[in-house]
Write a structure and sequence with these properties.
Layout: E1 2-6, H1 10-21, E2 25-29, H2 33-40, H3 51-60, E3 64-67, H4 70-75, E4 79-82, H5 97-109, E5 116-120, H6 128-139, E6 146-150, H7 160-165, E7 170-173, H8 177-187, E8 194-197, H9 199-230, H10 234-242, H11 263-276, H12 282-306, E9 313-317, H13 332-342, E10 346-350, H14 355-360, E11 369-370, H15 374-378, E12 383-386, H16 391-394, H17 398-404, E13 409-412, H18 419-424, E14 428-430, H19 437-445
Parallel strand pairs: 1-2, 1-4, 2-3, 4-5, 5-6, 7-8, 9-10, 9-12, 10-11, 12-13, 13-14
Bound molecules: uridine-5'-diphosphate-xylopyranose.
């Protein structure tokens, strides 16, 4: 089929490349001429495993093209996807002005007698489909035929290509059989279960899914606080509850709290949407509160061990919001760096992929030094903080870390290291919701 995708960010670009992979002809539109020029040259503006290869392959197969013109994109496409940003406003509610602008632009180029399906792939509040429909009617020429469909995207950064090629399910929110059939044709090659709902329900599914996943993370993080207090091991507790199929082990990993460009914004948006509709979802406020507290508890552990953070030299491993991405937006690792700097610590950070963007977007103060390797960051530091669980950090030999550090004090915000091994190497090791082994042993021998 001929598809047009408006917005060549994470969702748009990965979707476009994957649609091309299964045989569709895709034209990706973006209003940033620099981005379009890069993509034409086979350069990918984001780091996402497998994406560059896919894009290059389908630029070469001519199934994937790029343009700056919505008119050119919409003209030859059976289905037009909207994948533009829906950023948060100050109060957590969603700014839908990009969606509205694109809807107006699509309306302006639709031709009478040419049926088009307009699909909203961006994460939007329930009832946005109605607004998009109204907008297109308002600005389109008389006689234009179209349907608006909601098709939320569930891809995760870092494994976006795999998530899109093998989705758990595809959600199609449509109030028209004609549109539903076209959407089914697009997704048939992915061999995934297809769930067809009305437009409102599909829109709700995305916010409900992300909120539930965040709730699972906060539940595990709240358990980690109890485990810290009781000297129990949260990893064992979540394994114990996660093996119950009704609960499941996924998204019960404790850490510094969830971050990234989706969860914080989507949970805040869902809270605002529910409040707006007169049905406050207070449970989600607690999810947010636990998430904030998790970082604060970690900092308190640092203060407990180091007493005063001012003028302490601290190494931070990790800046991205999770491994295998260069995305540093709403990253808890970045928040930790800023917290430490605010308390007067001298921070040297290292991240395999995120340093350039952290600097470019000025997310960390100039005073933060960036090292060219994990070990270089650790040089002479009085403590090491592990903020993002990159695989490469697990592979650094413990004896090397110990040699480089001024004091063998490690705060593991992601429970990446094995407490036993850290103890054997002579580290003072603090992690999340797992008892410090030296304390456990002292208690056992007393
Ligand atoms: C998320 C959803 O998973 C995806 O379906 C949606 O389309 C977009 O939002 P993403 O933000 O890419 O994807 O990352 P994800 O892997 O879900 O992690 C989000 C945050 O939660 C990260 O900060 C991660 O560190 C944290 N997390 C995740 C935990 O703290 N514990 C877990 O068990 C899982």
């Amino acid at each position: 089929m001929n598809l047009c995708i408006i917005g060549s960010g994470y969702v748009g670009l990965v979707s476009g490349a994957c649609f091309a992979e299964v045989g569709h002809h895709v034209i990706c539109v973006d209003n940033d001429p620099k981005k379009i020029a890069m993509l034409h040259a086979g350069q990918i503006p984001i780091y996402e495993p497998g994406l560059e290869d896919l894009v290059k392959r389908h630029v070469a197969s001519h199934r994937l093209t790029f343009t700056g013109s919505i008119e050119e994109g919409v003209d030859g496409a059976d289905v037009v996807f909207i994948a533009v940003p829906t950023p948060p406003r100050e109060d957590g509610s969603v700014d839908l002005s990009y969606i509205e602008k694109v809807a107006r632009e699509i309306a302006g180029v639709l031709k009478p007698g040419q049926y088009r399906v307009v699909v909203d792939k961006s994460t939007v509040p329930v009832k946005t489909g109605d607004k998009v429909t109204e907008t297109i009617h308002r600005y389109a020429k008389p006689g234009v035929e179209f349907d608006v469909v909601s098709n939320p995207e569930f891809l995760r950064e870092g494994c976006a290509v795999a998530d899109l090629m093998k989705p758990d399910r595809v959600v199609i929110g449509s109030n028209s059989d004609k549109a539903t059939n076209l959407m089914r044709k697009i997704y048939e090659p992915f061999m995934a279960p297809i769930l067809v709902t009305d437009v409102n329900s599909a829109e709700l599914i995305k916010h409900a899914a992300n909120s539930f996943l965040a709730l699972k993370i906060s539940y595990a993080n709240a358990l980690s606080a109890i485990c810290d207090a009781a000297g129990a091991d949260v990893e064992k507790v979540v394994d114990g509850i996660g093996t119950d199929k009704r609960i499941g082990r996924h998204f019960l990993n404790t850490g510094l709290g969830y971050g990234g460009s989706c969860f914080p914004k989507d949970i805040a948006a869902f809270i605002a949407i529910c409040e707006d509709m007169g049905v406050p979802f207070t449970l989600l406020k607690e999810v947010q509160k636990i998430n904030r507290l998790q970082r604060e508890r970690f900092l308190q552990k640092m203060r407990d061990a180091l007493w005063i953070l001012r003028d302490k030299k601290i190494a931070v491993w990790g800046l991205t919001f999770k491994p295998d991405t260069d995305d540093v937006r709403s990253s808890v690792a970045i928040d930790i760096v800023n917290d430490l700097v605010r308390e007067g610590a001298h921070v040297t950070a290292y991240d395999p992929k995120g340093m350039e963007k952290a600097r470019e977007f000025k997310l960390i103060p100039e005073s933060v030094k960036l090292a060219s390797s994990a070990l270089e960051a650790a040089d002479g530091a009085e403590a090491l903080v592990l903020a993002t669980e990159w695989k490469e950090f697990r592979e650094v030999p413990l004896e090397e870390i110990k040699k480089r550090l001024h004091t063998p004090l490690v705060f593991d915000g992601r429970n990446l290291f094995d407490p036993e091994a850290m103890q054997e190497q002579g580290f003072q090791y603090r992690c999340i919701g797992r008892p410090a082994k030296e304390n456990a042993r002292k208690k056992a021998s007393a």
